[in-house]
Protein 1
Amino acid sequence: MKTTFFWFRRDLRLSDNTALFHALSENQQVIPLFIFDSNIIEELPKNDARISFIYKQLQSINEELKKIRSSMLVLKGSPKEVWQKIISEYEVKNIYFNKDYEPYAIKRDTEISTLAKNNNIAVFSYKDQVIFEENDVLKDDETPYTIYTPYKNKWLKAFSSTLCEAKKSENHLTNLAKTQFSFPSITSLNFNLSSIKVKPYSLANLESYEAERNFPAIDSTSYLSPHLRFGNISTREVINNTKHQSEIFLNELIWREFFMQILFHFPHVVNQNFKVKYDQINWRNNEKEFVLWCEGKTGYPIVDAGMRQLNETGYMHNRVRMVVASFLCKHLLVDWRWGEAYFAKKLLDYDLSANNGNWQWAAGTGCDAAPYFRVFNPYEQVKKFDPKLKYISRWVKDLHELSYPSPMVEHKFARERAIATYKKGLEGV
Ligand SMILES: Cc1cc2nc3c(=O)[nH]c(=O)nc-3n(C[C@H](O)[C@H](O)[C@H](O)COP(=O)(O)OP(=O)(O)OC[C@H]3O[C@@H](n4cnc5c(N)ncnc54)[C@H](O)[C@@H]3O)c2cc1C
């Protein structure tokens, strides 16, 4: 019997899932598949918290499927080899998946689509993780926006509630194939479960979001990022539940889509400055200083608190992400790519487009970036956003001990050095 496959990637849910909806409403005998991509996971430590998060989410989806006498096929390998094996074992009629806009994913999907075509298999891909994808919101001359505010205005103008209507995949689950695939143990995948716990998200009570979101000691942000990253909840559902609560919150979700379309249209940003005129900055790149930053031992309590929060929990508050990123690029003159790579290793919500976009923003090299002469003053940031040192004392337990380091570089000196170095780099072009 001919089989249709639905391929889970960054959309780990059964409900309101566009490609799953189409796969199930247009076919019977649909097999849901997940591939632990060896090209990605072999680079990761054995207890990587993202792998644990994905694993647990797959496990819970599989439990749901078992209730309706179905199951998920979970495999490990390079996607091309896995698909070749599947095609040799099954009579595959169709493959359905949701689109992914990262350069690696585009290359992977093109490769799999070619393989499918060569085997007379139809491929169907859908927009799902965003409201507007790469070419949906363009300037009047059909070129991509590189400045956030006009992008946001056009986004809002084009937005309507119908775009957020749920794709009720959950109503068609009876068209899943009745299977009993065995679910792999985490150790058979060559991983261990991480001790890092992912905080559940909350979309209620966003009324105070605007007033409180910059205060890292207050739990007023949604903690949605890893859940959105892996698609445990749909973007449509998030927007439907929040759009009447907070305009500012919606703006943040638009930043997410803004950076996704930047990455799509300007893939050079993965390794290079968005603005080439910043290519001549003479980064100091002192490795010892970089290690102190990574370990949260800079002697700047707000920076150290942020880095320790990241190292212990895989999360850091957005305001503090901005402070630590600015500190690394400007106070220490370390290339933003080093900081970006460290965040990529540690963040539960690591997402290439948002991470790269925000790092380039902090470094001043990005599309709509902070000007180079804007150097966050870490002491002023504490006065404004953590005046009672609540956040700092939560993460820097040794703050009042003699062993706590003194500042690794003096603020005024570092600020002036940063501005002079950037200026010289820019003039050198
Ligand atoms: C240097 C740096 C690196 C970052 N790296 C990432 C990353 O790898 N992945 C990531 O999801 N976010 C990243 N961010 C953005 C932001 O810090 C996180 O999205 C946010 O802290 C997640 O917490 P939350 O879900 O409680 O956010 P909320 O304030 O509740 O925001 C809701 C959602 O909006 C989106 N969002 C919010 N702020 C931004 C932003 N500045 N850019 C893009 N999307 C945003 C996220 O999807 C977030 O979950 C980075 C920011 C900085 C300054």
Note: The beta strands are 3-8, 30-37, 73-77, 92-98, 122-126.
Protein 2
Amino acid sequence: MSSIEVGDFRVTLVRAGSYWWDGGTFFGVVPKTLWAKSQPVDELNLIEAGFNCFVIEDAVHRILVETGGGVRHDERAKERMKTPDPPRLREVLSAHGFDPASFDLVINTHLHWDHAGGNTVDEGGGVVPALPNARFLTQRAELEHARERHPRDAVSYRPVNYEPLIESGRMYLLDGDSEVLPGLELIVTPGHNRSMMIVVLRSKGVTWCHFADLIQFAANITPTWVSGFDLYPLEGIDNKTRLLTQAAAEDWWCSFGHDPACAFGKIEVQEGKWRLKERLA
Ligand SMILES: [Zn+2]
């Protein structure tokens, strides 16, 4: 189990399994000869992508960032993603020593299925929150975009992951940046899509930033290595350059949406080359 101390907080990676997806989609226009050096590729050109979720705790709060991909996949999808028996979020949390009932809050950086897929479970003939006592947070504009069902990305949004929470009043919608509690900020950072939030935690001089899908793998820290999924790649490059420059200068711990081998990393840039100088698996 991989954890870091961020001042008064502890942050722990809880990986809700992984899936395999076409490698090129994560690296956009970057040639395979370059990105394949860091990501092992199978015979179908798939690479492994983790469902990286994080638990943030202090003396009184327990917060989950992202809920993974969930279990509602048909047989073909499970075979394609090489995940025949996807793990259940509650079981993953319990296996890490976290009682699902002990969470106050869930942060969905955005509502794509691979970040909000564990939000709800089918139980007693209905759909209920996977974490029975938690409030859920996301951006209002993200929900509105999800409901537009634009042909480009409608497939990424599954209403069962959020509409029941909206209906029951369990999901709270933010209008822009938000300080959830002192030191914990959610910052709208366009690139992957319009309204995705990064998570920035600061306490006693230490900073942790979860880049979610602004930076999906550690290999994507080169700012121009944007994902083919991104709706706003130029804005993404600008935001990555600004944030990664700050992360390197201030020695932040950084986390990424889908890297299956990196829980936390620190970044350096030398002569235009970006790399991890330290990594916790
Ligand atoms: Zn994602």
Note: Residues 112, 114-115, 213, 257-258 surround zinc ion (CB under 6 Å).
